[in-house]
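Quick log. Single chain, no ligands specified.
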Amino acid sequence: MGLLNSLFGSGKKEVKPTIYTEQTCNSCGDVVKRPFEDGDYVFKPGLACGKCSATTLITAVYGQYPPEKH
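-> predicted structure:
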């Protein structure tokens, strides 16, 4: 059965991660996680900080899988 599953799939739907971007404020250090947007990359200047209005910097782009259902 293992060979058949590898050839034709196990019938389970492939779960894809959700991609997130983290922005860190250069002044107060506040970190904001938001959904990834086209054009995001690490070290790109971000939006103004919501707490102190200083410039933010994109410090991480990563994928996160949803919790598994048992």
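The first helix runs from residue 2 to 8.
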